[in-house]
Amino acid sequence: MNRLEKNQKWNDTDYDIPKFSYKSAFLITLVTFFATALTNYFSNGNKICILLALSFSLSLTTAYSRYFIDTKRGMGKDFLKTFLLLFLACAVVLYFVQF
Question: H/E element holding 81?
Fold first, then answer.
């Protein structure tokens, strides 16, 4: 049986994978790029400032997109948990990456 014959949309999956809309992806990319560029400009290339700005902007916009744009769940414990976990994960990964 063809996958499309099961009354599924072309982008549906068999798993409950959270998806981002184009609006969310554009917001995450744009805010993260500009926050990092502005931090790089104003901090004269200080790597710790860039690391914190990149981690903060990426985690905040991802959590915002997930809980306010895509699902309309709003502020709550899960929003803060997502923000903090993404911030820590991004900061740890970027700390070990030479940039």
Answer: helix 77-96
